[in-house]
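Notes from the 1:1 (GR / supervisor)

We went over the backlog. Supervisor wanted to see one worked example end to end before approving the batch request, so GR pasted a single chain during the call. The sequence is below; no edits were made to it. Supervisor asked that the structure be written out right there so they could see what the output format looks like.
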Amino acid sequence: MKVVPVGVMNKNLQSSNDLNCSAMLDSKSLNDGKLANEVHLMAAVPGSGSAWSMGSVKAITGLGTIATEKVTLPRKRHAFYYKTHYPYFGSKNPSLVEHPDKTAVLIRNPFDAGISEFTRRNLKRELAKRKRTERGNYTQEKGKYKGIIDIQEILYLVPDKEIPSEGFESWIQSYMLRWKTFHRYWLKDYKGSVKTVFYQDLMKNISKFVDVVEYFGFNTTLTTERRQRLECFIDAHETINTRRRPQSDVIDHAKEVLKEYYAKDVQETISYVETLLANKYNKKFVIL
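Structure output shown during the call:
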C-alpha cells in the first residue's frame, strides 16, 4: 500500500468524485474542549515520516497541528498536536518538548530515514540554486529527482565497485549517532507518557493511526461525523496510488549499494534502540 499527504490525498479524492470525503478531510470544524489545555507531541528523527503522520492525525481528527520549532510562546494554544525533532534539533519552546502531556515517538529504520532526509536536503538545496540561476522561473515537477540528485552526491565509482561519497559518509555516520541519541532521550531519559509508533506498521496498516489519536485522547467513534471522517481517511489511503516523495533510479540504485555497505553499522544502531525498547516495555521489538 502506498500513501499520500493530506493535501495531495484530498485533490485526488475530488477527481474520484468523492466530494463529501474531500470536504470532510479538509475541514477543521471538529473541536474538543477536553484537549484544549493539553500538549500532545509527535516526536521523530527527520526523515521518519513525521510530516505525513501529522497530516494523517489532522485528517482523522480535524484538529490543528504545528511544528514546535514554529512556536515561541510557552503553551499558547497554537494547535492540538505538535510535531518535534527534539532533541535531534533544539527547540524554541522547551516547555512544549520537555513537559508534554503525551508523546508518540515515531520510529523508522535509520538507514531508510537517513537516505530520505539526505535526499530531501540535497533536493531542497538544488532547487533553491536553480531558482536563483533562472531568476525564479524554475518550478519543481513531481518525480524529477533524476537530473536534480546527482549520483556522485551519494556514490563514488572506484575500480570494480561503488563506495559512499565523502559527503554521504559524513552525513550518515552523524545521522545514526543522533538517531541513537534521540531515541535514548525519549525511551530512557524522558520519564513522561510515551507511546512508540513504528513507520513499518503504519505503512502496512494505515488504521494504526487510530491507536495514535486515541492515545492522545481522541475518540474516533464518539460521533457520526468522526466515524465518517475515519472511513474517508482509510479509503483515501487505500485507493490512491501516490507516494509522498517520488523515487528515481538514482536513489533506488544508491540504496541497494549502500544498504550492504552499511549493514553492520545499521544493525548495531538498530540493536541499541531495540534494547532500549525491550528494557522500557519488557518485550521484544524488531525494527525493520
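Supervisor's comment: Residues 1-17, 135-147 have pLDDT under 50 and may be disordered.
Batch request approved.
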